[in-house]
Amino acid sequence: MTARPADRLMERLAAHFGERVTLSESFGEVTADAPAELWPDLLRFARDELGCVFFDWLTGVDEPPEGFAVVAHVYDPADRAHLLARTRVPRADPRLPTVTGIFRGADWHERETYEMFGVIFEGHPNLVPLLLPDGFEGHPLRKEFVLASRVAKGWPGAKEPGESDHGSPSRRKTLPPGVPPDWSRDG
């Protein structure tokens, strides 16, 4: 019986990285968790040795209080094998080597992750803001980032219970998700 693509990926990753990388498989997609210092080696190995030549995406995930996960998805079109590469960086100093020299497509993804989460990709050729306006302060996809505009201006068309023409009783107004309790529209 022929081994599944996921099984082949896991065997080759385990043979090359051993205990340094944690492997799992779910629904035919292999996940490889590597320490930050192995991040470029993992993606280079995936491209050069596993045939994962298609770079799909890279992003960050805020995981307070520890730090951030950086996740990349690559694909082997010949074997139809998916690899999800993950690593973690600490919140106090979120730095990771760039992989733009391995996958050129990582350029914009790393810039977006830098801008939205504050993860610094060392060696990136042009790590400058990509999406936010000039002068924007903060990293809006961090969980501690307050979406002040939700407090300053209500969501268009949103009605609290009791704000209709039916005369039903009103209840206490609640703040939008992600807004600290000490913020208010009136303050």
From TrEMBL:
Q: What InterPro entries does its record include?
A: NADH_quin_OxRdtase_su_C/D-like (IPR037232), NADH_UbQ_OxRdtase_30kDa_su (IPR001268)
Highest taxon, organism lineage: Bacteria
Q: Where is the NADH:ubiquinone oxidoreductase 30kDa subunit domain?
A: 35-150
A Gene Ontology molecular function term of the record: NADH dehydrogenase (ubiquinone) activity
Enumerate the residue ranges of region (Disordered). 155-187
The similarity comment for this entry is: Belongs to the complex I 30 kDa subunit family.
Name the record gives this protein: NADH-quinone oxidoreductase subunit C
Q: Which organism is it from?
A: Thermocatellispora tengchongensis
> According to the entry, what is the taxonomic lineage of the organism?
Bacteria, Bacillati, Actinomycetota, Actinomycetes, Streptosporangiales
